[in-house]
Amino acid sequence: MDKEMYCHEKEAPIGVFDSGVGGLTVVREIMKQIPNEQIIYFGDTARVPYGSKSRETIVRYSKEIVHFLQTQGVKAIVIACNTASAFALDEVEREWDIPMIGVVKPGAKAAVRATRNGRIGVIGTEGTIHSKIYSQYMEELQKGIQVLGKACPLFVPLVEEGLLEDPVTDEIAVRYLSELIDRDIDTLILGCTHYPLIATAIGRVMGEKVLLVNPAYETARELKQLLECQGLLRENPPGLGKNRHQFFVSDAAEKFKRIANSILPYGILSANAMNMEQY
Ligand code: DGL
After folding, report:
1. Ligand 1 atom having least distance to the Cα of 49
2. C-alpha 37: how far from its chain's center?
3. Where in the chain is the domain with CATH 3.40.50.1860?
């Protein structure tokens, strides 16, 4: 199949997608680190969660979304979902000739740089942890590194329910994370885009000696470098005011908007609901 073309204009927007609201933690970092950029976000709220679905399904969803973003004239795409980065990045990259990054590699690189004892924990969805993508990549980066993965599926609904600072979240965090504490890790990757929102609770349980790596922050840094390298970094803001970013979802636009307004540095005016069947 011919690779699909993309927009080579600096002024074009960046496409960002996730299964729902989690990718907004990546958007928040992009807004902070490269504030001139314009973002088109897609949250697949009708089909969330991705974390418990098969590779084939996530690849199919990701291809549909990349196709949609491409119709919006984006210059680059960020897969702001660990599960979709684990399952679909390579396949989608093969099909589309557009600068693209996921969240796994930037997070993995930062963790390898940070560890002192070579023992790194990764928490994420079942899909991300069972894919072993983080451990494979970190072993490639540094031979002999020990990676301990733990799926924490209840963290996503806790975040979506807004229980960011709540005894229930702390209790579940203790259950999930105790085995990582026992294995003496010194670095923990928050390998799901929802988890930075409960980083305080996770940090409380892990203790101050364990460094938490937020792949969202690292991804925004790498995105900036990627755009610079490709001559696609925008020099001036688009001048459309607060409304310059656009948000699309596949369901429940009002709920998305409410959560987005609690995550992003400023409120979004609307989220457009759309049907993905045509993509
Ligand atoms: N955004 C997903 C991730 O980072 C978590 C939510 C889901 O399971 O869809 O893996």
Report:
1. 9
2. 18
3. 3-102+217-278, 104-215
Q: Is the pTM of this model over 0.90?
A: yes
- What is the DSSP secondary-structure string of 15-56? EEEESSSTTHHHHHHHHHHSTT--EEEEE-TTT---TTS-HH
Task: Assess whether pLDDT exceeds 90 at residue 93.
Answer: yes
Is the beta carbon of 135 within 6 A of some atom in ligand 1? Answer: no
Report the pLDDT value the prediction gives residue 137, as an integer from 0 to 100. Answer: 97
For 156-169, the pLDDT digits (tens) are: 999 988 899 999 99
- Which CATH number applies to 104-215? 3.40.50.1860
50 pocket-lining for ligand 1 (C-beta < 6 Å) = yes
Ligand 1 pocket, residue 193 CB under 6 Å: yes
Q: Which fold has domain 3-102+217-278?
A: Rossmann fold (3.40.50)
Active site annotation includes 192: yes
